[in-house]
Amino acid sequence: MDLALSPGQIAFRDAVRAFLDAELTPAMWRGAALTSGVFAEPDVYRPWQAALEARGWLTYFWPEHAGGPGWGAVERWIFESECARAGAPLIPGMGLKLVGPVLYTYGTETQKARFLPALRSGAHIWAQGFSEPGAGSDLASLRTRAVCDGDDYVVTGQKIWTTQAQFANWLFALVRTDPDVKPQAGISFLLIDMASPGVTVRPILSASGDHELNEVFLEDVRVPVANRIGAEGEGWSIAKFLLENERGGTGYTPQLLADLDRLVAAAGPLDALLADRAVRLRLEAEALEMTELRTLHEIEAGRAPSPRSLAVKLIASEIRQGIEALAVDAFGLSGLQLPAERPFHADDAPALAGPPEAGLASARYLNARAWSIFGGTSEIQLNLIARAAPAAP
């Protein structure tokens, strides 16, 4: 789908394309193409992160007062679309998209000066410590305890489904600082150094064999009170702000459409049934793109997003799973291999059968099942949509 762009927006698009031509190296492209999970690994995305930061475009979804470039909704959409089409690595959002906005909104000047530059440079890699066994969708029931002891909190508990914690050196976590008030009121937001004594990371291997997720155990971990963001007991409000940033501000569809295009090109001529599925997926993604653009304009205008925005993640999950199912069917036997070696982009990794879209089809299909779970399960999204729907007359 082509939108009518103004001359200035066309010039901006051309500048983005020129930047991608100059800075997106073959090694970065190869690493991204051979990523079977949601996010690229640090050795793939860090050079790309450095190039974006040098250009001033790394924090393109941050407001100008916080260090963003001051782009509007259309510029953000153009940038994401061009990066997706070019095959740029997808940088994990735990730092830039999630804890970054929390820091520049709720952090003290000392905290901003300490953490934001290291986040932007890539010196700090962040993981999110929210979910726990028994506290996933019902996050308010979390049990990880933080007891104040002088200038420190002593933190004990367990976090689970912690994306890329094996690479992280910092964890932002929700902890219970007051067990005697209603659940939401007793939660605080802490920044935890992963090198602290008492922090243990254990891998969770996905059905595909990929290691993206982890358990994080916290056993009497001492965390300075100075690492608390906001007031004690304000963690629930900060978490709601963070989740709004996770579910809005940037779009799913640029990557969905680019991946679908690459799949169709790599598969070659499709039979009628597969071609019909590909067309249906494209139409669904383009319809979702319009919804995302309308939501971005609402946010840009200072309005609360319409309730229709609640459906975006739900529909994006279904499209993502549809694309990966189409890949397995389109590539046949070439799409069924499931190599055990990781990472696929390593120089000594065994060669895949066919293009990356075929060789990684099975792993990506299995990993895509998580789309209807992470960031709010599809069932939770449906409940939110139902509550937001106007009552019948």
Structural write-up:
This protein is of the alpha+beta class. The protein is built from 13 helices and 8 strands. The protein has a 4-stranded mixed sheet with strand order 1-4-5-8. Helix 5 crosses helix 7 (235-247). The longest helix is centred in the C-terminal third of the chain and has 29 residues, at 272-300. The radius of gyration is 21 Å and the shape is globular. The mean pLDDT is 91.
Order of helices and strands: HHHHHHEEEEEEEEHHHHHHH
Beta-strand content: 5-15%
Overall shape: it is: globular
Which class do the helix and strand fractions yield? alpha+beta
Number of helices: 13
Largest sheet, strands/sense/barrel: 4 strands, mixed
Oligomeric grouping of the chains:
single chain
**Residue-averaged pLDDT:** 91
- What is the rounded Rg? 21 Å
Distance from first to last alpha carbon: 37 Å
Percent range of helical residues: 40-55%
Q: Count the beta strands.
A: 8
Low-confidence stretches: none
Strand order of the largest sheet: 1-4-5-8
At a glance:
The protein has 13 helices and eight strands. The chain has 393 residues and is α+β, with helices and mostly antiparallel strands.
Key traits:
four-stranded mixed β-sheet, single chain, 46% helix, 393 residues, alpha+beta, four-stranded antiparallel β-sheet, 13 helices, 8 strands
